[in-house]
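Dig into these lines:

——
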Amino acid sequence: MKKGDIKRILVPVDFSETSEISLVEAMTLAKRLSAEVFILHVIESSGYYYSIFPEKSVALPSFNEVKKAVNQKMEILQGKLAKKYGVTIHPFIVNGHIDTEIIALAKKKKIDMIFMGTHGASGYKEVFIGSNAQHVVTLSNVPVITIQQKKDKAGFKNILIPIDDSLHSREKVNIAMLIAETFKSYIHLIGLPETKDEEEVNKINIKLASVEKIINDSKLGYKTTVVHGKNLAKAAIKYAKENNCDLIVINTGHESQTGIFLGALAQQIVNHSSIPVLSFKHSEDHYSADTPAFGI
């Protein structure tokens, strides 16, 4: 993946603080890449929700009334963003389920990357991934950047690439390098062996060396560290916080055939990281026994 490959960026908006934060990050990247931005608001539909109210007991606004109000907000937002960033913006308002409509529009408009605000997850969501952001991360075939909190400055200056012992393609590294080269970022490459066993650590070091070759070609600054911990996801997040990383790049893999569950490491990082996370699902046609193997 190269800079020219990111031409269309999708940002779901619900006018909340987190969606505004994700918009700022998306617009900042779009301006640097000369990409178009698609902003989407989904008016959630639920027949059951309306059916629980006795007839005429509650005056609910009609869909047309809601859409009119949303349309006014979207027009104002589009104008402000276009003026500030000078980027082409396409607004969309649809009725349906949020995660389903995001994936549908991404496919229809051939979106290259999605930015999405999220509130994280806990409890039962840890298992069933109940939030819209989690569903999008799981189902999307394009990179998704999830953002929970506002940063001091838009853009990504310290990017963390964690490597574990799972077998995935080098595509995650390629997308990380695209972002890094765009913002002239410093790269933190960390190895995450499950144990301190010498053979396992050596396998991780071989993977790290392969990634280092790619980074060296970019001439960006970087450092490599092997990190140990009982919980690899927590170890990665802890490292990111201690080293002021502002983006963690992970590979969600293909652990689920149903699209419901992420792999355990990816799931924990997306759910619990207050630092933005770029989740990438490698494509099968880029994955073979001959492909260099990298981790999460």
Notes: Residues 156-296 form a domain with the Rossmann fold fold (CATH 3.40.50.620).
